[in-house]
Each structure stands twice: as structure tokens, then as C-alpha cells.
Amino acid sequence: MGKREEKSRLFRDKIIKAAKIVFQQSGFENTTIDMIATKAEVGMGTAYNYFQSKEELFILAISDEVIKGAALSIPEITSSNQITDAVMDILGQYMQMMNWERKDLWLTALPIMLKSTKSNGISFLQAFESDYKLKSVITELLENCVERKMLAGDFDTASASELIMGSLFIHITSYIYTEEMPIDQVLSGIENNIKFIIKER
């Protein structure tokens, strides 16, 4: 990495770090790019050189740890009846990284992420990069299970991963928008779906 690229990376990281602090202190609606630039000790013009909007910064700030490559570990399993537990372990790691238990945060974040992919020049991949990483880890686990004959040789790992991701999104969305829904109910629903998808008895 050249000096220019390194300087650019440092500025981006500095601004994202500042954004995380300001959003936590002031909330999304009350935060401005100027406030973030001040916290990062950079000019507002510099902030706009790196980021198009506060929506983009919000998306990157809340998923910063995952986007920076925080590793999702794949549990060791020895039999087919451990596959569901292994997938749930991976989902648990992801949910903790993404701070899904913060309903207040995600009530703000989800609409912004969906809207920003259409109106603020933020690509779907950028907004949901952490989800793509999660899907690839689940797919890797299932492919390993096929290779070790814990799943049938014709088991469609790609489709199974997509169904698991769909189940996660549906249950998490219900959790966020249902005030009294406990996280245990979410986990139980996802686990039952996984058992059905992999045909676990």
C-alpha cells in the first residue's frame, strides 16, 4: 500500500470512528456531517471527499467491526446432528457483532439501509457487506459437511444458505418491530427453520 492509499485509509477510519461516537451520543436525526468532521478533527470538505452522506457513514459505523473483517469462526462438529447447533453458533457470533439486541439502533438503521441503496448511491453490497460475509461462512460450513458425508452429496448448500439468511432476516425484522418479542423467541424460530432446511431429525 502506497503512502497516499495509507493516508486515505487512515482518514476513512478516523472519520468512521468519530461517526460511531457522534451517532451514539446524538442519535441519527440530530447528527450532522459537520459534527462528525469536528469530532474527527478534519474539515467538512474532507469528510465529504470520503463519504457521500451521513446515511453512508451511519451504515458503515454500525457495522464497522464486521466490515473490517472481524472473523466468524466455524465450530468443529463430528456428526450430522450437530449441524444446526454449528449454524446457530455462527449466527450467534454475527448477531453479537452486529449488536442486534439494540432494537432502538436497528429501528433507525434498517429503514436507512434499505432507502440508501436506492437514493444515496450506496450499493446493496456495501450496505449489506456483513450479511454477504455471514452467508459465505454458512456456505463453507455446509460444504464441509457435504464433503464429510454429514449431508447428502446432492445437498444444495447455496440454496440452503440463502434460506437460512432469509429466515434470519425475517425473524430479526419481526423482533425489531415487535416491542415485546424476546430474543429467545427469535433464536428458537431460526433454529426450527434450520432443522427443516437441513432435514435434521
Give the terminus-to-terminus CA distance. Answer: 51 Å
CATH class of the largest domain: Mainly Alpha
* Averaged pLDDT: 84
Extract low-pLDDT stretches. Answer: none
The major sheet is characterized as:
none
CATH architecture of the largest domain: Orthogonal Bundle
Helix segment tally: 11
Instruction: Please tell me what the overall shape is.
Output: elongated
Strand fraction: under 5%
Percent helix: over 70%
- What is the radius of gyration computed over CA atoms, rounded to a whole number of angstroms? 19 Å
Please give the domain count.
Answer: 2
Tally the beta strands: 0
* Element-level helix/strand string: HHHHHHHHHHH
CATH topology of the largest domain: Tetracycline Repressor, domain 2
Structural class: mainly alpha
Brief overview:
The chain has helices at residues 3-30, 33-40, 44-50, 54-62, 64-67, 83-97, 103-119, 124-127, 129-147, 157-177, 183-197.
Describe this structure in words.
There is one protein chain. The chain has 201 residues and is an all-alpha fold. The protein folds into two domains: 3-51, Arc Repressor Mutant, subunit A; 69-197, Tetracycline Repressor, domain 2, CATH 1.10.357. The chain is 73% helix and 0% strand. It contains eleven helices and no strands. It is elongated and about 55 Å long. The N and C termini lie far apart (51 Å).
